[in-house]
């Protein structure tokens, strides 16, 4: 056997022929022809193949595994096209690892794998690269060289030899393989390039991938440049600051932080802070002095110090409380509201006589549009202090009241401290608007946070989370407003003195319109007083026929609509001036929107007029009853609440128990169902005060008598026939007066509430006080009973 035969014969007798190639499976490595790469050999079969190639001086083929985590790949686990390479060097390191340095030569395709050998062997065919090139290939090759040069220039610390080597290549095939080998793309994409035999397609694909990589490198270079500029700027700033510190040290000014710090220190000393706040401000200023203004905490600390300086720790406006002047201001700004004005004057008088006393917290409660917010402004004007308004409607975060801790990004003080800062004095009038519309959420209950604010015994040490220090609110005159008391928590309501503002009568609305609303709308619409005049009758018609409200907001809107019509006519030259009378109002606003339904509703038996209280004032309420064949059941409709349903049941039970005395056929009641309905069924209704109206409607239905159309009633009834007292007398009587009622039936125990009713309403209405339901029936139906009282047991 010759030496050559010995080199081709394996120990087990299997021979490696010339058309066979030793195969080395590799992970995540694609070898291209013309490139030199190092390869680490770890697996036993791969090591055997490498050693056999070195021993026999044979070429070795590199094939990429389809799955990198396969430890012992078979033929099906490898790609079919690879690169044959010659081993330039075989190195065994001190730690026992084996390394090859190989040079790729040409592509090959596996025909089949051979078995029976300690390493992988395959029969292959070699795939030569094209040698003839067209102009298109040449152009693509030049473009690839240009792209490669740009990519190398964008690489950090790229060797200059790489760019020179790429530019010196003449063969497009060698060029494209070299560029592909250096590209930072996935192994699968490199394998696709290796398997792309068409040179033109390979050039296009490599050029496309390289262009994407160039875009990434450009963006990376831009980001690096921006970062480097920022770092250089910061280093420059640090250097300059250090130089400045050394200069101050040489000048003997070490410890001074510059003119700005000096100004802050002077402002802190002049701010009039209490001792604990002053000590804290000095401490934080020292921290600021040692801190770089590039620090994230610098701006936060500077903002806190600015707030401490701007707060009016000791500034108090001179309160010139003149009772006569206060009365004059209140009368100028508001018509009517005599009881409220009297209470405000009392409040100011006590504050004048005892400036150091604890001021009560006033809470104005009433329907929208009656002047609650403007009363607060009038108080501030009467006292001569600043006015600030804090809207609490929809506030559901406790931090809105107490502030955020300044460790949070974007932290702010609470609305109370901000309002005091805006006022610039420690004794302003602060209006807490819509306090009944506070919410509660996952961030706490703001109503609970207000407990300290509105407690005169505690608010002298109110602690805002942002300040982190107590602030004295005892000199602040707090005034709250609300539409209803039910939604205000009990502890918060207990800290306030409630002053109720009810709706205006028609006469009061006309007077308010004459004094304030017409003038305000003339200014809003660009009219002069001599150009437009609205008569008193026209104002009364607008209030009566086009608005139905407790306040005056809709009245002002309708007056504005009338004056806008006049403004159009003056602007187009139709008239130079106009007096708006009743006829003009009807022509401008159209048909009346509201009319009295009392006469129509009470024109048949079974209908009674009741009086109701709503959050926006009083209103009339019609109770309708009818009888249908049935089994004595009671049917209730109209969105009635539980209490109102029970009142209806009590009224029917009382009628049944007194059927004989009322002249009602008891058998008729047993053969009939009674249906009670309260119109405006979309509006929920509840409360016991409709008991007398329900009883009257049932008696009217079953006796065939019609309720007087100028009578309205309110009161709770008992099964003994007693008429029990109710609330909201003023609102209900004003609503009755507005609806054209002439007689109002009230419980006798509500006689004391009549003094709250406006004098004009008392002059126009006749009040009848009822002890028992017999009094109600006598006044409403003209039905008289004997001396025997109605009782449940009769």
> How is the quaternary structure best described?
single chain
Query: Main sheet, how many strands, which sense, barrel?
Result: 5 strands, mixed, barrel
Please report the distance between the alpha carbons of the first and last residues: 142 Å
Proportion of strand residues: 15-25%
Q: Describe the strand arrangement of the main beta sheet, using strand numbers.
A: 1-3-4-5-6
Q: How many beta-strand elements?
A: 24
Q: Helical proportion?
A: 40-55%
Outline type:
elongated
Q: Number of DSSP helices?
A: 28
User: Which structural class fits the helix and strand makeup?
Assistant: alpha/beta
Mean pLDDT: 83
Rg estimate, integer Å: 48 Å
Extract low-pLDDT stretches: 1-13, 786-794
Summarize the structure.
The protein contains 28 helices and 24 strands.
Summarize the structure in words.
This protein has 794 residues and is of the alpha/beta class. 44% of the residues lie in helices and 18% in strands. It is built from 28 helices and 24 strands. The chain is elongated and about 135 Å long.
Highlighted features:
single chain, 794 residues, alpha/beta, five-stranded mixed beta barrel, five-stranded parallel β-sheet, 28 helices, 24 strands, elongated, disordered C terminus
Provide the fold topology:
Elements: H1 3-7, E1 20-26, E2 36-41, H2 44-56, E3 60-64, E4 81-92, E5 98-114, E6 120-127, H3 135-154, H4 160-168, H5 172-182, H6 187-195, H7 199-250, H8 259-270, H9 275-290, H10 296-310, H11 323-333, H12 338-353, E7 361-365, H13 372-383, E8 387-391, H14 399-402, H15 415-423, E9 429-433, H16 446-453, E10 462-463, E11 470-471, E12 477-482, H17 490-494, E13 496-500, H18 506-524, E14 532-534, H19 536-545, H20 553-571, E15 578-580, H21 582-589, H22 598-601, E16 607-614, E17 617-629, E18 634-637, H23 642-657, H24 666-670, E19 672-677, H25 691-703, E20 711-713, E21 716-717, E22 723-724, H26 729-738, E23 743-747, H27 759-764, E24 766-770, H28 773-781
Helix pairs in contact: 3-4, 3-5, 3-7, 5-7, 8-9, 8-10, 9-10, 11-12, 11-13, 18-19, 18-20, 19-21, 23-25, 25-28
């Amino acid at each position: 056997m010759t030496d050559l035969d010995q080199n081709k014969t394996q120990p087990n007798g299997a021979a490696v022929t010339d058309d066979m190639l030793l195969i080395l499976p590799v992970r995540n490595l694609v070898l291209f022809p013309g490139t030199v790469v190092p390869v680490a050999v770890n697996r036993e079969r791969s090591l055997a193949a490498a050693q056999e190639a070195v021993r026999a001086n044979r070429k070795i083929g590199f094939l990429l595994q389809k799955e990198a985590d396969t430890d012992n790949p078979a033929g099906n686990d490898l790609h079919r096209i690879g690169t044959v390479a010659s081993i330039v060097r075989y190195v065994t390191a001190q730690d026992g690892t084996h390394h090859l340095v190989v040079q790729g030569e040409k592509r090959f395709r596996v025909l089949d794998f051979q078995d029976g050998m300690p390493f992988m062997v395959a029969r292959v065919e070699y795939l030569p690269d094209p040698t003839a090139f067209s102009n298109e290939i040449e152009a693509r090759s030049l473009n690839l060289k240009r792209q490669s040069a740009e990519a190398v220039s964008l690489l950090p610390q790229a060797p200059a030899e790489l760019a020179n080597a790429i530019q010196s290549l003449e063969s497009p095939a060698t060029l494209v393989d070299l560029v592909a080998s250096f590209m930072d793309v996935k192994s699968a994409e490199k394998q696709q390039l290796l398997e792309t035999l068409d040179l033109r397609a390979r050039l296009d694909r490599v050029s496309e991938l390289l262009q994407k990589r160039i875009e990434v490198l450009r963006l990376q270079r831009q980001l690096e440049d921006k970062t480097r500029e920022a770092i250089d700027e910061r280093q420059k700033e640090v250097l300059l600051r250090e130089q400045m510190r050394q200069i101050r040290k040489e000048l003997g000014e070490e410890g001074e932080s510059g003119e700005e710090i000096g100004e802050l220190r002077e402002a802190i000393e002049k701010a009039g802070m209490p001792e604990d706040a002053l000590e804290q401000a000095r401490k934080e200023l020292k921290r600021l002095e040692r801190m770089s203004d590039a620090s994230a905490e610098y701006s936060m600390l500077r903002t806190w110090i600015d707030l401490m300086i701007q707060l009016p720790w000791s500034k108090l406006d001179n309160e010139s409380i003149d009772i006569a002047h206060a009365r004059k201001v209140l009368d100028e700004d508001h018509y009517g509201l005599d009881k409220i004005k009297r209470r405000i004057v009392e409040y100011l008088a006590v504050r004048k006589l005892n400036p150091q006393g604890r001021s009560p917290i006033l809470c104005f409660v009433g329907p929208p549009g009656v002047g609650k917010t403007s009363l607060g402004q009038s108080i501030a004007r009467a006292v001569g202090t600043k006015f600030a308004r804090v809207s609490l409607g929809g506030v559901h975060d406790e931090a809105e009241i107490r502030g955020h801790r300044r460790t949070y990004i974007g932290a702010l003080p609470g609305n109370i401290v901000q309002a005091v800062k805006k006022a610039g004095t420690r004794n302003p009038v602060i209006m807490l608007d819509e306090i009944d519309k506070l919410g509660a959420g996952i961030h706490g209950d703001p109503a609970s946070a207000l407990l300290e604010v509105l407690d005169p015994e505690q608010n002298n040490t109110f602690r805002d989370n942002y300040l982190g220090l107590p602030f004295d609110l005892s000199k602040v005159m707090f005034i709250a407003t609300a539409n209803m008391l039910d939604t205000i928590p009990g502890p918060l309501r207990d800290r306030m003195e409630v002053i109720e503002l009810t709706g205006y009568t028609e006469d009061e609305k006309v007077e308010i319109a004459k004094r304030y609303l017409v003038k305000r709308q003339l200014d809003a619409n660009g009219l002069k007083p001599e150009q437009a005049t609205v008569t008193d009758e026209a104002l009364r018609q607008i209030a009566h026929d086009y608005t139905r409200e407790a306040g005056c907001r809709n009245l002002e809107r309708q007056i504005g609509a009338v004056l806008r019509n006049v403004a159009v006519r003056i602007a187009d030259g139709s008239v130079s001036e106009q007096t708006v009378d009743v006829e003009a109002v009807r022509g401008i606003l159209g048909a009346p929107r509201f009319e009295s339904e009392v006469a129509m509703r009470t024109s048949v038996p079974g209908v009674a007029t009741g009086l109701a209280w709503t959050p926006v004032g009083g209103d009339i309420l019609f109770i309708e009853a009818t009888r249908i064949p049935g089994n004595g059941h009671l049917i209730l409709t109209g969105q009635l609440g539980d209490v109102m349903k029970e009142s209806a049941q009590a009224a029917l039970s009382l009628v049944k128990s007194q059927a004989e005395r009322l002249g009602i056929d008891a058998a008729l009641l047993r053969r009939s169902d009674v249906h009670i309905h309260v119109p405006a069924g979309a509006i929920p209704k509840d409360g016991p005060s409709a008991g007398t109206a329900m009883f009257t409607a049932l008696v009217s239905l079953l006796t065939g008598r019609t309720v007087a159309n100028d009578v309205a009633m309110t009161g709770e009834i008992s099964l003994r026939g007693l008429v029990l007292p109710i609330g909201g007398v003023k609102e209900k009587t004003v609503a009755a007066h507005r609806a054209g009622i002439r007689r109002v039936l009230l419980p006798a125990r509500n006689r004391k509430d009549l003094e709250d009713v406006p004098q004009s309403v008392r002059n126009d209405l006749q009040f009848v006080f009822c002890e028992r339901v017999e009094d109600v029936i006598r006044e409403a139906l003209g039905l008289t009973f004997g001396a025997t009282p109605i009782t449940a047991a009769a």
